[in-house]
Write a structure and sequence with these properties.
It is a single chain. By secondary structure, the protein is an alpha/beta fold. It has one domain: Vaccinia Virus protein VP39 (Rossmann fold, 3-Layer(aba) Sandwich). 36% of the residues lie in helices and 20% in strands. It has 12 helices and 7 strands. A 7-stranded mixed beta sheet has the order 3-2-1-4-5-7-6, with helices on both faces. Helix 1 runs parallel beside helix 5 and helix 6 packs across helix 9. The protein is globular and about 55 Å long.
Length: 291
């Protein structure tokens, strides 16, 4: 059985390779994983960033599964944190909205991605965009500093998603919010996909059930959760046949299994709401309506 640390090592190796590739090379591999799969077309390719303000071609490696910055309600002067910032694509789009009075911190645990992002920021002359090396399960960021957190197709790669969303909650200010694009499942993933390590790095077998994903967000303490965008991902036969039997492929095609890209929004409660919840829990116990 593959351990969490082994999975992290796998992802780090894959994305270090991606950092040295072009966008065109990444777009013709599994979610940019370089796993040798056939061209995916519109399967796991990132959405089109080119029309967004702040877009920088050198920071766009063709990764991701949504446009979280488009839905994140970022305002001028905001402090934004980008989880799994890669070469800086979402961070630079966020910076175009926060302006010179705001700040963007990108966090990634692949050193080559951090190096690439820093070079890109220097070329652009951005002094309020910072890239830090770190693990999303234990962010190198202080408590309650972010107005907004964004992330693009990264949480599915994190083995401990509970810890990752608790950390997201911790670094957000009271009343702050996140907009996160990710891959989730509806129905049981066939064992061939679920156990294959390369498909883990390719964003599929690291994904969890949609309902479980949303419950983790709620359990972390977030409120006002909503799905801002949802799109079914269609994997072509060239990829499915490498991991599944004909019977399993037929089941997938019939719609018994769904792989979706979703963009999720949720808020950290205000200090008043958190104080009321804490007082209620102390008085009556968690989840009680007696007070």
């Amino acid at each position: 059985m593959t351990t969490s640390e082994e999975l992290k090592h796998l992802v780090k190796e894959k994305y270090a390779e991606i950092a040295t590739q072009t966008k065109q090379q990444n777009e013709t591999s599994c979610c940019g994983s370089g796993c040798g799969c056939a061209t995916i077309d519109e399967a796991l390719m990132a959405e089109d960033y080119t029309k967004l303000q702040g877009y920088n071609a050198e920071a766009d490696l063709g990764l991701g599964c949504g446009l979280p910055t488009e839905f994140a309600n970022i305002k001028a002067g905001d402090m934004v944190i980008d989880l799994g910032s890669g070469a800086g694509n979402d961070a630079f789009v966020a910076r175009s909205i926060t302006g010179a009075t705001g700040k963007v911190i990108g966090v990634d645990f692949t050193e080559k991605m951090i190096e690439k992002a820093r070079v890109n920021a220097e070329k652009l002359g951005f002094h309020n965009v910072e890239f830090r090396y770190g693990d999303i399960e234990k962010l190198p960021i202080s408590n309650s500093v972010a107005d907004v957190v964004v992330s693009n197709c990264v949480m599915n790669l994190v083995p401990d998603k509970v810890a990752a969303f608790k950390e997201t909650f911790r670094v957000l200010k009271s009343g702050g919010h996140f907009s996160i694009s990710d891959i989730v499942l509806v129905g049981d993933l066939p064992e061939g996909l679920r156990k294959n390590a390369e498909m883990y790095a390719g964003c599929i077998s690291g994904a969890i059930q949609k309902n479980d994903y949303l419950q983790i967000v709620k359990d972390a303490g977030f409120v006002n959760l909503k799905i801002q965008k949802e799109k079914k991902i269609i994997l072509p036969d060239e990829i499915l046949s490498a991991y599944l039997s004909e019977t399993e492929m037929s089941k997938v095609k019939k719609g018994d299994l769904g792989i979706f890209s979703i963009t999720v929004y949720a808020e950290r409660p205000t200090e008043t709401d958190e104080s009321k919840k804490a007082a209620k829990a102390a008085c009556c116990g968690e989840g009680s309506d007696c007070c």
